[in-house]
Amino acid sequence: MAFYYAIALLGMLAVFSSGGNALDDNMLKTTVYIQQLPYQNQRGVAEGTAVISWYIKDGPGASANTIGHAEGLVILTDIARSSWLITTDLVFDGGSLAGSSLQVMGQHESSGQWSIMGGTGQFTMARGVIEYKTIQEDSSSRTFEVCIYAYYTPMNGWKAGLALGDTGSKP
């Protein structure tokens, strides 16, 4: 019986004493639009591989502002389904997200999900998911609606270059 009490106590300690968990993090929930222009903002580098710099827009229409770029690679992984692997940084140059980026990877089809595996700027230590779908497609362009759901830990008060355990205070 004492064994069960010990397990219960350890479980409660783990739940109530953990610091730096997801409950302490900030959440980003926003929608942006990625515009792919195959003859302008991507370049084939090998059979089935392209370097991309797709536009990130703040809206779906022609008058939307460019607020960044999806910079990375797409690699053909399934010819029959026209499925691609995407590994990219969503780099934000304008708007409220300027100066930050999200590192993203996943299968790229007409709709689906990508994993958020990291971030910079205000999105340090980001993790989450992106749900995307094609909302416009013709012979010269394709537009994706990109819904971002991410948790991140801002670097408020962190000092660059400190050794592990160093608080940065003067002796």
UniProtKB/TrEMBL annotation:
Pfam families: Dirigent
Domain of life of the native organism: Eukaryota
Entry-linked InterPro entries: Allene_oxi_cyc_Dirigent (IPR044859), Dirigent (IPR004265)
Signal sequence interval, chain numbering: 1-22
Keywords attached to this entry: Apoplast, Secreted, Signal
Location relative to the cell: Secreted, Extracellular space, Apoplast
Keyword Cell wall biogenesis/degradation applies: no
Principal localisation: secreted
GO biological process, one term: phenylpropanoid biosynthetic process
CC terms in the record's Gene Ontology section: apoplast
PANTHER family per record: NUCLEOPORIN-RELATED
Function: Dirigent proteins impart stereoselectivity on the phenoxy radical-coupling reaction, yielding optically active lignans from two molecules of coniferyl alcohol in the biosynthesis of lignans, flavonolignans, and alkaloids and thus plays a central role in plant secondary metabolism.
Subunit-structure text: Homodimer.
Family to which this protein belongs: Belongs to the plant dirigent protein family.
Protein name, as recorded: Dirigent protein
